[in-house]
Structures are given as C-alpha cells and as structure tokens.
Amino acid sequence: MSQQISAMIVDDEPPMREQLRARLHEVWPELLISAEAGSGMAAMELARTHAPTIIFLDIRMPGQSGIDAAKTLVQQAHVVFVTAYDEYAVDAFERGAIDYLLKPVDTDRLRICCERLKARIAEEKNQCGNSAVETAQIEQVTSLLNQLSKHAQLNKKEYLRWIQASVGNSLRMISTKEVLFFRADDKYTCVQTEQGEFLIRKTLKELEDELDPKEFWRIHRSNLVRVDAITEVSRDFRGRQLVSVRGHTEKLEVSRNHSHLFQQM
Fold this sequence. Notes:
- The protein is an alpha/beta fold.
- About 35% of the residues lie in helices and about 30% in strands.
- The chain contains 7 helices and 15 strands.
- The strands form 4 sheets. Strands 2-1-3-4-5 form a 5-stranded parallel beta sheet, sandwiched between helices. Strands 10-9-8-12-11 form a 5-stranded antiparallel beta sheet, with no helix packed on it. The protein has a 3-stranded antiparallel beta sheet with strand order 13-14-15, with no helix packed on it.
- Strand 1, helix 1 (about 15-25) and strand 2 (about 30-35) form a beta-alpha-beta unit.
C-alpha cells in the first residue's frame, strides 16, 4: 500500500488558506491536507511534526517571510510558492522552472500544478531518491530565493497609513485602521469610518495601488473594503454576495469578478 501524499498550506490570511484548501479538494481530492500555518516559523515547526510531501507557501508574510522559511523547507518537501502578482518574482519562477501560483488561485492553473507535482513525486520514487538530482534542485531553489530576498529588500513598499480629508476649512487626518470601506462617488471617493463619512479627491484605483492588499480588498469596481471590518458575507434572493461591515447597516455588493474572495459561499 503506497503512502498517502500529504500537503501543508502556509499563508497568514485564513481566507486565502480556506480558498486554496477548497480548490485543492476540487482538483486533487485524494490529497491529504495534514497541516496549516499562518507564519514561516510555525510552518517550519509543523513541517518537522507532519513531514508533508508538498508545501504551498505564501512568500510574503509578516515576521519570518515565506522566502526565509523556504530555504529550510525546500530540503524537506516539494514547495509551491503562492504569491500576489509580482512581475519580478513570476519571471524568476518561470526562468527557474519553479512551481508557483498567483493569488487568487485559479482552478485550472492549480490543476496543472498538481499534475506536475504528481509526475515529479512518481519520478522521484522511480529514481529511489537520487541524491545528486535532489541536491541540484535544492541549490537551484536556494539561489532563486536569495535573488528574491535581495529584490524584496531593495523594493520594500511603504503602504498608505493616513488619509487626508477636508472638513470645512480644516484638514482631518484619518488612520487607515479607522476606515471600514472606500466607495467611488463621482469625482470623489467616500471614506467610511464608524464615526462618519468623508470625501477625498483620490480615485479608488489610486487608493488600491497605495493600500496594503492584505488589509483592503477590492470587492466591486465601486468599493474597497477593510478585511478585518467584515462581519458577515451573505446572499440575497438574486444570489448576489453581500458584505456586512461592523458599525454600518448598509451591505456592500460583491461583483462577480471578485466573488473568488469568498469562494466558500
């Protein structure tokens, strides 16, 4: 009887872990998800305990990054890197023939990745653990990770932390932590907080580029919502997904193009 192939999912965002777990179940139902981790440090500890065959690893996490953790994890399992779009990283992965997935994870792309993993694992068994091949692969991945680490340090992005809004003749400074959501409003953007709403002369596209994508999600062409302000996601009688945020009675519609963010619904 062959040993069941197992996997670990590593991402500091629970919704992203849930989405990937659901899609893995869809494309590879026999795969055992033996562990999940929310940080690089936890991933290394769980990898020692569970010894997964495959690790799906987010490369950008607070604390010890996925890049740092991967330098150890690639010696223990097949690592598939999961990342938000980064042109430099994607180009590096493709040139190095390294498995990677872009967020949000596309089902068809995941299916291709899983087929490659199955073939690689089967080939590994046939080679009975060719140490020279394994060493070469580890060296290749380690070299790539060092490149990505240097690139990340040189291009560390500072995200917007304060919003300036005019209130009469005065200027109001609003911390992005206070913001529940942003809504496009003609030539302005409405900034909604629990204290009230404010108008700013900045487009949603400009805000989306300046805000941390781990803190704010685009759920509609007219709305950017703070992730940790979401209290509930429901459906109306027409099947549309609606987001409820704390301290606000109005529900925000999720467009079809962004429904993948709440794939479990």
